[in-house]
Amino acid sequence: MVKVRPFAAVRPPKQYVEEVAARPYDVLNSVEAKAEAGEKSLLHITKPEIDFDPIIDEHSQPAYDKAVENFKTWQEKGWLVQDEKPCYYVYAQTMDGRTQYGLVVCAHTDDYADGTIKKHELTRRDKEEDRMIHVRIQDANIEPVFFSYPDTPEIDAIVNRYILGEPEYDFVAEDGFGHHFWVIDHDEDIQRLTELFAEVPAFYVADGHHRTAAAALVGAEKRGKNPDHTGDEEYNYFMAVVFPESHLKIIDYNRVVKDLNGLTPEQLVAALGEDFEVKEEGAQIYTPGRLHEFSMYLGGKWYSLVAKEGRYDDSDPIGVLDVTILSSLVLDKILGIKDLRTDKRIDFVGGIRGLGELSRRVDSGEMAVAFALYPVSMKQLVDIADSGNIMPPKTTWFEPKLRSGLAIHKLS
Fold first, then answer.
1. How far apart are CA 44 and CA 52, in angstroms?
2. Measured between alpha carbons, how far is 274 from 276 in angstroms, rounded to an integer?
3. What CA–CA distance (Å, rounded) separates 169 from 276?
């Protein structure tokens, strides 16, 4: 069962929230961040290299020092202010007319260590260490991680009561996504939510595997350095936004490849026919409509590819995934791409960009062929995490992304 507790968030006063809130550090590069960051933007804290001209290495000591300086300055200027008491918070996001309602909580590092917080991706130690540096220098979780949990009606009922009231924050960001935020500050509701989550069997990492690992590792470090450790210290917890599984929707995560591994387009289509039913669909964008169906853009045309029976194992939680089928039967077998993590011939395109981005990159000559996949379901993600398996790289894309700066969790 999971352990959560409320926390006194450091967050912007209502009049500053739209100026402070920012996209997450990992969805834009330094040049994009510099162009996007206004005076009060959290990007000056999460991507402090942008405060230098020219932009410096984001991993350099001057950048880290600037991050600490900016976090302190934002608090001194009143652009970030800490709440007087520990609370929970409702954070809702609206995209394409659909709203998902989550809770901002502090999760326990022990739950990550013992597997109660379940992951579906591998993490790399170098990326963990990079995120750990940011947690260490700020002594805070500046950006939240993104978890799901099994639907729990009584938790929903408490959330539903709060969202009937006026939100603390309510704005539409420049990308068109709505962000809505309420403070749960009644003691009886705080206590009841803590009790209800104690009956929830697990959290599932949706987005933020490296931030989750980093937060847990920093908590363990602090524990090891404190001879008077009691287990109640704030560093035992880290900030997460947790959503009921039914609220979340995974969108497609597609692939583009630089060359055809020595084949002509005609030879590629013929080779695909061994494992797929191949049908030419014409110049109009063709979107896969079901599991085990793919679309391919090649030579100005879209094709549907339906995997033939016997080419996959529906009883295998990994083998049944469309990313596994494509990787095995196309990328590896035909195009010679063995390692998705390291091969420079392949790139990945989140479905939020639309399938037009796939045809654009092929038509430009940058890429030779593109493949669109049917999205993974939340059930598939949960089944894989519950079985202790790991998904192939670049399998899930969640949208909208959590806006950074609505809440920050101090570790001391």
1. 10
2. 6
3. 50
Identify the residue with better confidence: 126 or 257.
257
Q: What is the largest CA-CA distance in the chain?
A: 70
Which CA distances in Å does 328 have to 59, 242, 271, 274, 320? 36, 34, 13, 13, 11
Query: What confidence tens digit (pLDDT) does each residue in 302-352 have?
Result: 999 999 999 988 888 888 899 999 999 999 999 999 988 889 999 999 888
Please list, in sequence order, all residues whose beta carbon lies within 8 angstroms of the beta carbon of residue 101, skipping any fewer than 6 positions away: 90, 91, 92, 159, 163, 243, 244, 247
368-to-17, 76, 298, 398 alpha-carbon distances in Å: 43, 53, 7, 27
pLDDT in tens, 262-273: 999 999 999 999
Residue 113 near residue 382 (C-beta atoms within 8 A): no
The C-alpha atoms of residue 137 and residue 124 are separated, in whole angstroms, by 20
Kindly report the pTM of this predicted structure.
0.89
Distance between CA 213 and CA 216 in Å, rounded?
5
Q: What is the C-alpha separation between 365 and 259, in angstroms, rounded? A: 10
Picking from 4, 10, 5, 6, the residue whose alpha carbon sits closest to that of residue 409 is 10
C-alpha 251/C-alpha 241 separation (Å) is: 19
Least confident of 124-133, 188-197, 286-295, 344-353: 124-133
User: What crossing angle do the helices spanning 153-163 and 187-197 adopt, rounded to 10°?
Assistant: 150
Q: Is the pLDDT of residue 141 over 80?
A: yes
Q: Which residue has the tokens 């493949």?
A: 371
Residue with tokens 């709440």: 83
CA 48, CA 56: separation in Å to the nearest integer? 9
